[in-house]
Amino acid sequence: MQSTLQRRALAADHTPPRARNLGFWIATGLFCLQIGFTGYAQLRLPQVAAAFTHLGFPDYFRVELSWAKFAGIVLLLAPVPSRLKEWVYAGFAFDLASAVVAHLSVGDGVQAWGWAAATGVLLGVSYYFWRRLEDARANA
After folding, report:
1. Distance (Å, whole) CA 42 – CA 66
2. Contact indicator for 35, 72 with CB cutoff of 8 Å
3. How many helices (H) and strands (E) does the chain have?
4. Band of the pLDDT at 2, cuts 50, 70, 90?
5. Does position 13 have pLDDT exceeding 70, yes or no?
6. Which of the residue ranges 14-18, 31-35, 44-48 would you say has the lowest mean pLDDT?
7. Angular region, 13: left φ>0, alpha ψ -120 to 50, beta rest
8. What is the pLDDT of residues 61-77, one digit of tens each?
9. What tens digit of pLDDT does each residue of 84-135 get?
10. CA–CA separation, 98 vs 101, rounded Å?
11. pLDDT value at position 26?
12. pLDDT of residue 140 exceeding 80
């Protein structure tokens, strides 16, 4: 059952279905490429491993975080239940916000935390379009 506010929000969304779909896949594809690169870099690039040490994280956390990112990418791209996808979006949001906070807490400049902030913007755009697609499916 929908509230009046939800119905008004849906009625106000005049974006054509194709544009919503295209927006979702572009934003999600770019996000997955960026987060996939960071997962790869955390596993393979020594300067990224040094950055984790600089932030005060143990080495195992870098590896664990990389594999969690790869699993999250698969779940974002796979047709999984909406509740699970919500958790994936939340997990990525916590990851990116924590990265910004970690860099700020050790006094790093924008060159260190800017990547995470920009990736967070892509995540937000992907989530926005995904919610519009989910709302359209629910009301079809």
Report:
1. 6
2. yes
3. 6, 0
4. low
5. no
6. 14-18
7. beta
8. 999 999 999 999 999 99
9. 999 999 999 999 999 999 999 999 999 999 999 999 999 999 999 999 999 9
10. 5
11. 97
12. no
Specify the pTM: 0.86
Distance CA 23, CA 129 (A): 6
AA identity, residue 8? R
Residues 64, 71 contacting (CB under 8 angstroms)? no
Q: Which two tokens stand for residue 71?
A: 């699993």
Question: Which amino acid is located at 5 in the chain?
Answer: L
Distances (CA, A) of 109 to 45, 115, 137: 21, 11, 42
Helix axes of 59-77 and 82-105: crossing angle, nearest 10 degrees: 150
> What distances in angstroms separate CA 20 from CA 9, 17, 89, one per listed residue?
15, 5, 18
- In Å, how far are 28, 55, 60 from 73, measured between CA atoms? 9, 24, 20
Contact (Cβ atoms closer than 8 angstroms) between residue 119 and residue 62: no
Structure tokens at 48: 């990224």
How remote is the C-alpha of 81 from its chain's centroid?
A: 17
Distance CA 50, CA 16 (A): 46
Distance CA(38)–CA(41), nearest Å, equals 5
Q: Which residue has the tokens 């779909």?
A: 21
